[in-house]
Write a structure and sequence with these properties.
Layout (H helix, E strand, L loop, with lengths): L1 E5 L2 E5 L4 E2 L1 E3 L10 H4 L1 E3 L7 H6 L2 E11 L4 E15 L8 E11 L6 E2 L14 E2 L6 E4 L10 E5 L4 E14 L12 E13 L4 E3 L9 E3 L7 E3 L14 E3 L23 E4 L5 H8 L4 H7 L11 E2 L6 E2 L11 H10 L7 H9 L22 E2 L7 E2 L30 H4 L23 H4 L68 E3 L2
Antiparallel strand pairs: 1-2, 2-3, 4-5, 4-14, 6-7, 7-13, 8-9, 8-12, 8-14, 10-13, 11-12, 14-19, 15-17, 16-18, 19-24, 20-21, 22-23
């Protein structure tokens, strides 16, 4: 680690993190460079654990261009990640980094979500300034006046590989956050890899023999087409959506309201499951009381390795999917990151895309699953299955018996089936740790209206976004199987636990990921 002082800016950096602090200045009547007004000190930048898994990195973070008339400043940084793409053929989608900013006053311990400008008069429309020498684009959801974050992605077609953007700037409206020009603050930039799922019709159910799958009534082998976000009638009239409830499929009631996310509209989905590094860094931005609620305290069990004290959580398995997460843990992480839970209809869309279903298929589109039989390079950035053809983790395999690193499978096998990817390029939707979508199988789940998180938790560390399933987990379910389940439960249309409620359980195979409505 190296520390340098350049023109009033003190930077500390290593391969993945950069830190910056802002000591305030007196207010002036004209706009001026923040590096002339204030002294920038040291701050830790939080990078998502997925960043470690596939090398998304944020570095060289500084505050610059302070405007004391309009009370904003620019958060400038470099960002890069591997395995990026943009294509207008086939899937017609791209990947992106969801970038958001947290800050705290130096006189306080509480971290807050920064308000980013979404109309800045420069043409970018979201407070993002594009470096002149890159093909970067961005978009965001305005959050009702100010933005909670920005999606940064390629803007050129038929490209893939590593992206690297320097001097990216986000406009932070610190005045809207109640700060004065002279306040001393710490600022953290987070990046989470996401995948764009475009608006399109798709099929529910596969026509196979899964437990409690969706189908077009009355024929269990006929799939149901979702062609809009309109309400869906559930029942035993020809042409309705229906499902059995042999195990935990749900109450077979409806309708599924128009506000419930059907998956027809475009959304972004996390490319990987929440990792231990992501979750540890989330814990480190909570108050002591919030941390006490959200800390799993399962260090040493099935490769869960998050330990330490409040504000100083670490893990020796940073790249491994985080297990021992209850529904309330997952919901809190997503609310804090200004994301939201996915619905179980969005789960099937994210897996299958727009192509015709294959009976009993997995997330990668066929009925063949090759499980990991061991771990190579355990706990390292290049951790993978010892058998190079493995495309999923399931059935408590000897030599594994735990989650693996996110995005680690199918090394050297550049096909959807080979790497275990969904139609849109989303990883581990079958196996590794359970997904936690919102179910259509009970009234609480059907109340979910897809509102995004706002970056703020309640004082005890719980998500507080309206119409999400609460800490009782009623309304949340399980899809996609895990490292401990049989292969049949990895099938993307299997719903044997889709409406099963675990009130507070933090299971060894429980994880999760989030989505966000596309701008």
């Amino acid at each position: 680690m190296k520390t340098e002082t350049l023109a009033g800016v003190k930077r500390e950096s290593n391969s993945l993190n950069t830190c910056v602090e802002h000591s305030g200045s007196t207010k002036k009547s004209n706009a001026t460079s923040i590096t002339k007004q204030i002294k920038l000190l040291l701050l830790f930048i939080v990078i998502s654990s997925t960043s470690f898994a596939n090398n998304v990195a944020v570095s060289n973070v500084v505050l610059t261009g302070q405007n004391t008339t309009s009370d904003f400043t620019l958060v400038e940084f470099d960002i890069s990640w591997d395995n990026s793409w943009w294509t207008s053929v086939g899937t017609s989608n791209w990947d992106a980094a969801w970038v958001f900013v947290k800050y705290r006053l130096k006189t306080q311990t509480t971290w807050n979500h920064a308000s980013l400008n979404w109309v800045d008069g420069t043409g970018s429309g979201d407070g993002h300034t594009e470096p002149a020498n890159t093909n970067i684009a961005s978009a965001n959801d305005n959050g009702g006046g100010n933005s909670y974050g920005v999606f940064i992605h390629r803007d050129a077609d038929l490209l893939q590989g590593t992206v690297s953007y320097t001097d990216v700037q986000l406009r932070w409206e610190y005045g809207d956050d109640g700060l004065a020009d002279g306040d001393s603050v710490e600022v953290c930039v987070f990046a989470i890899e996401m995948v764009y799922v475009p608006q399109a019709a798709f099929e529910l159910g596969s026509g196979g023999t899964e437990v409690d799958p969706f189908y077009l009534y009355p024929t269990t082998t006929n799939t149901y087409t979702v062609s809009s976000e309109a309400a869906i009638t559930v029942g035993t009239t020809a042409g309705n959506l229906y499902y059995a409830t042999v195990q935990n499929g749900g109450d077979q009631l409806g309708p599924i309201p128009a506000a419930f996310p059907k998956g027809f509209n475009a959304f972004y989905c996390m490319k990987y499951e929440v990792s231990q590094e992501q979750y540890a860094e989330f814990l480190n931005k909570l108050t002591t009381a919030q941390d006490a609620t959200r800390f799993p305290n399962r260090n040493g069990n099935f490769r869960h390795a998050i330990t330490g004290s409040a504000g100083a959580r670490t893990t020796t398995n940073p790249y491994v999917a985080c297990n021992y997460l209850s529904w309330a843990d997952v919901a809190a992480y997503l609310d804090w990151a200004a994301l939201r839970p996915m619905s179980e209809l969005e789960y099937e869309k994210a897996c299958r895309g727009t192509i015709a279903p294959v009976a009993n298929e997995y997330a990668w589109g066929n009925t063949s699953a090759t499980k990991a039989t061991g771990i190579s390079n355990a706990s390292l950035t290049n951790e993978t299955a010892s058998n190079a053809d493995a495309n999923c983790v399931y059935n408590n395999a000897a030599g594994v018996q735990s989650p693996l690193r996110t995005g680690c499978l199918g090394q050297g096998v550049n096909t959807r089936v080979g790497v275990g990817a969904s139609y849109y390029g989303i990883m581990e939707l079958s196996g590794n740790v359970w997904e936690r979508p919102v179910t259509v199988g009970n009234p609480t789940g059907r109340l979910f209206n897809g509102v995004n998180g706002d970056g703020v938790l309640d004082a005890t560390g719980n998500a507080n976004t309206a119409n999400w399933p609460n800490t009782t987990a009623t309304g949340a379910g399980f899809r996609g199987g895990s490292w401990i389940t049989l292969a049949v439960f990895l099938r993307l249309s299997d719903r044997h636990s889709s409406a099963y409620t675990f009130i507070s359980s933090q299971g060894a195979s429980f994880g999760g990921r989030g989505v966000r409505v596309a701008p």
